[in-house]
Amino acid sequence: MSESSSDLMIEVSGLSKNYGVFAAVNNISFEVPKSQVCAFLGPNGAGKSTTMKLITGFIAPTSGTARVAGFDIGEERIKACEKIGYLPENGPLYNEMTPNSSLLYLGKVRGLSGSKLKERIDFVAGKCDLSEVWHKSISKLSKGFRQRVGMAQALLHDPEVLILDEPTSGLDPNQLVGIRQLIKDLGKNKTVLLSTHILQEVEKVCSHVILIDRGEIRFNGTTAEMNDEKDLERKFHDLTKFKAASVS
Predict the structure, then answer these.
(1) Cα–Cα distance between 1 and 92 in angstroms, integer?
(2) How far apart are CA 118 and CA 229, in angstroms?
């Protein structure tokens, strides 16, 4: 890549994760620079969520390394995690809390206090449109609102790197528009690695695509390159060895 190492916010080198004889992630390498929204695509079971868990230090690799904002996630995990906002797929929430109390608590855990904490809570609450459920128990929220609380938590400490695993899952069409625009805006000065199954989402918000299948990278290039001559859906099918059923 043309970027210098100081411009790279995610660096994955020879990363593997084995479960017995099964290779969930098999010796993958890629880089994501500053101010890029990068789509991380693949069919179910391809290794997307596992890779994201490896990058964030949620699980340890069998081999290889991942660096975030220059910090090795294995050797400098706390420093690396300070730079990361992570929204896992179906991420855990404090069900007994409200969005208000949850963000207040997590902000303090992140070391925020006083006016800075209030400023960040007001920002994420507005961006994720949580006013309607602000004082409602998280256990009683719909899937879409729970997803928005998770997004607010990921954004709370103003991280430089966002790792988002299916962030628009469960959102209605109006909510989709708002979150997509938020991700696009965040990508102007943050690095975003976005896992999604919605290819329209990739075209709207992502400038780069990494596609993984069976634990290995099949494509790494710009969205325009992946869309060259074929639409994204057909290219996705080709790259993941999709075979359409024959029509008699």
Answers:
(1) 36
(2) 49
CA 84-208-232 angle, to 5 degrees, is 125
Domain assignments of the chain as residue spans, ordered by start: 1-83+161-170+188-242, 90-158
CATH architecture, domain defined by 1-83+161-170+188-242: 3-Layer(aba) Sandwich (3.40)
pLDDT in tens, 190-225: 999 999 988 888 988 999 999 999 999 999 999 999
CA 139 – CA 137 distance, rounded (Å): 5
* 92 vs 90: CA distance, rounded Å: 7
- Within 8 A by CB and 6+ apart from 102, the residues are 93, 94, 138, 149, 153
pTM, full prediction: 0.90
Give residue-wise pLDDT tens across range 156-196. Answer: 999 999 999 999 887 888 888 888 889 999 999 999 999 99
